[in-house]
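Example 3.2
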Amino acid sequence: MKVIFFWLLLSYLFGSIPTAFLVTKWILGKDIRKIGRKKASGSNVIHNVGFLPGILVGVFDIFKGVLAVGGAYFLGLNPFWQAFCGILAVCGQMWPIFLKFWGGRGGGTSIGAMITLDFRIGIFLVLVWVVLKVVSKEYGSSIGMLLFYIIGGILGIYFQNQGICIFSFGTLPLILLQRFLGEPGSIKKIKDKKVFIWRLLLDRDTKERMKQEKNFW
């Protein structure tokens, strides 16, 4: 049990390493959470700092999920705990203890965890997400990420893959919660309830903002 607790804690802490924040601070001297889409993510770094720094951040975020799940596997933990370690790594990326619990959206870390839990299912889900991003610059990425978890859970049930099921259905509500909460303190400023729908589905506050970001991806 000590091994399980140790790796669960380490998965969260490693997921909490704020790569996007550190890279942006080092290059621009700015807080990535206060520029662009106000997210500590590789995509926001690509758009506001540079392509290579953003790719570096994205790769590291993916590695967070790989390490959490892969480490649990090599420690002999069963699929349930492997998936749970992946979920905690995603939680660390979204709510990093090193940045007062304001981080990214967990996409990259989720990809790393899913691919490590089941490579074929993980790659298929990534392809679905990429296709949607290409097809729709406005809606594809946000909707695609939701489908990433929903389809992942369905495939997990179909192939009787416990780890995929637990990770997909365990992470989805957390992703929605992160979208719903948005920037710390922003909920108090919302007057139109439609904003919550936009947040949950498209991870944005307004349709106008979405149009302004149509070339973001």
